[in-house]
């Protein structure tokens, strides 16, 4: 029976790298008021994908050049979970201990977005905002961010694992 290489060490390494990179990038966007800019949102996704490609490549290299599709899915999903949990935790701690105005900035942006919509009356905007104020908290953002990263990590893994998989031949001559 052959030893099977675990995806955990690679997922932990790249999950933590992605968590710190994601938090730092979000922090910079927040400080520079660029959180609504689509170009910068796209760059965030590219960072995510790039880190995943590096993780997959390292796993495949350390596994004698082979990686099953299922291993890629596990690696990506676990990396997304660790990255989401790590960046979510850093963001949560930042909002609780350093800058609690982040929630208000989010709520103000939502209010502006709803107010610009001609289908919403002022009363409707107030009702939506009253509900959003209850649901947008550091804890709910932490949970949503973690789950979102797991989901996105799984989706990206479906594609990257399909591209980078290389099955070990069953019968070697």
UniProtKB/TrEMBL annotation:
Alphabetically ordered keywords of this record: Membrane, Transmembrane, Transmembrane helix
Entry keyword annotation includes Transmembrane helix: yes
InterPro entries: DUF4199
Membrane-spanning intervals of the chain: 12-32, 38-56, 77-97, 139-163
Coiled-coil intervals, chain numbering: none
Protein name: DUF4199 domain-containing protein
Protein species of origin: Rapidithrix thailandica
């Amino acid at each position: 029976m052959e030893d099977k290489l675990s995806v955990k060490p690679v997922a932990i390494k790249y999950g933590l790298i992605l968590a710190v990179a994601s938090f730092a990038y979000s922090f910079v966007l927040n400080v520079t008021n660029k959180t609504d800019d689509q170009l910068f949102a796209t760059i965030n996704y590219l960072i995510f994908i790039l880190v995943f490609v590096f993780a997959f490549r390292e796993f495949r290299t350390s596994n004698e050049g082979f990686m099953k599709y299922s291993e890629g899915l596990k690696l990506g999903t676990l990396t997304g979970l660790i990255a989401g949990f790590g960046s979510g935790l850093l963001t949560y701690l930042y909002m609780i201990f350093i800058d609690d105005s982040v929630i208000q900035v989010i709520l103000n942006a939502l209010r502006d977005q709803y107010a610009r919509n001609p289908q919403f009356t002022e009363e409707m905007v107030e009702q939506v905002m009253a509900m959003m104020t209850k649901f947008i908290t550091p804890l709910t953002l932490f949970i949503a961010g973690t789950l979102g990263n797991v989901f996105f990590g799984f989706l990206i893994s479906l594609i990257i694992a399909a591209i980078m998989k290389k099955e070990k031949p069953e019968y070697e001559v």
